[in-house]
Amino acid sequence: MSDFKNNNLKSEAQARIDLAACFRWFARLNMHEAVANHFSASVSEDGSQFLINPKWQHFSTIKASDLILLDTNNPDSALLAKIDPTAWAIHSQIHLLRPDIKCVLHLHPIYTTTISTLKDPTIRPIDQNTARYFNRVSYDDCYQGMADSNAEGKRLASLLGKHSRLMMGNHGVLIGSHSIGVAFDDMYTIERACQVLTTAYATNQPLRLIPDDVAEKTAQDWESIEDFSEAHLEEIKRLLLIQEPDFME
Predict the structure, then answer these.
(1) Whole-model pTM?
(2) What is the pLDDT along the chain (249 residues), one digit of tens a residue?
(3) Per DSSP, what are the bridge partners of residue 138?
(4) C-alpha angle with apex 149: 145 to 152, nearest 5 degrees?
């Protein structure tokens, strides 16, 4: 297992294991979309080389060795044929344009996607989890169909701005991070946050928003405990090692 206090670029072998664990666990949480959606992790400083899942393989079956290594400087047509074109369009552009983002997770989880369909998809701070995203999410309000072109990938990457999270309007969510562990925990938490927000909206009662200064302080506190996020993935890997050890193969 990796040292969760080390947030530096991981070796390819370790990145494969960590990413495979993410696939397995999000399948257990029913946050996958049939055999679609995609996660990536860069294994080069400039983001040109990254790992990604093969198309149409169920998340619950993915092993470390199944992940495909792509190189944007030398795209291999045989390898590109093995991945979803939208995966290439989105992940290649984000890793190239934002090399600080080492891991990119894209899902259509029920509650976060529900919030993405609202006229105002802002994750409003009503509890500790929603406050994690206070002024820290970019929003795309112009769904343009399947993101299967480099131009669309560039558009999405540009929308991130200074952030690493993108609420994709009428589509889903994209989470980026310098760390696979942090991205994993972030994706888990944003879905929990949106579940709380969706449930609150369903009551038709006025929301009691957390004051801006408290929400900002809470978001900063979240950013100061990345070891918590790393530990979350480490614990998941320990469970998988007992229950589904083949994820490391």
Answers:
(1) 0.94
(2) 444 334 445 699 999 999 999 999 999 999 999 999 999 999 999 999 999 999 999 999 999 999 999 999 999 999 999 999 999 999 999 999 999 999 999 999 999 999 999 999 999 999 999 999 999 999 999 888 887 788 999 999 999 999 999 999 999 999 999 999 999 999 999 999 999 999 999 999 999 999 999 999 999 999 999 999 999 999 999 999 999 999 999
(3) 166
(4) 65
Rg of the chain on CA atoms, in Å = 17
Cβ atoms within 10 A of the Cβ of 45, count?
10
Q: Given the DSSP bridges, would you call strands 138-140 and 165-168 parallel, antiparallel or unpaired?
A: parallel
Report long-range pairs for 197-202 (Cβ below 8 Å, ≥24 apart). Answer: 197/111, 197/115, 197/123, 197/124, 197/126, 197/130, 198/111, 198/114, 198/115, 200/126
Q: Contact 177/102 with Cβ under 8 angstroms? A: yes
* Cα–Cα distance measured from residue 197 to residue 120, given in angstroms and rounded to the nearest whole number: 12
Strand ranges, E, within the chain: 38-42, 49-52, 68-71, 103-107, 138-140, 165-168, 172-177
Q: Which residue has the tokens 């495909």?
A: 68
Beta-carbon contacts of residue 77 (< 8 Å; ≥ 6 apart)? none
For the record, the structure tokens of 79 come out as 């390898």
Distances (CA, A) of 54 to 40, 102, 121, 195: 11, 19, 31, 29
Which three-class secondary structure state does DSSP give residue 223? helix
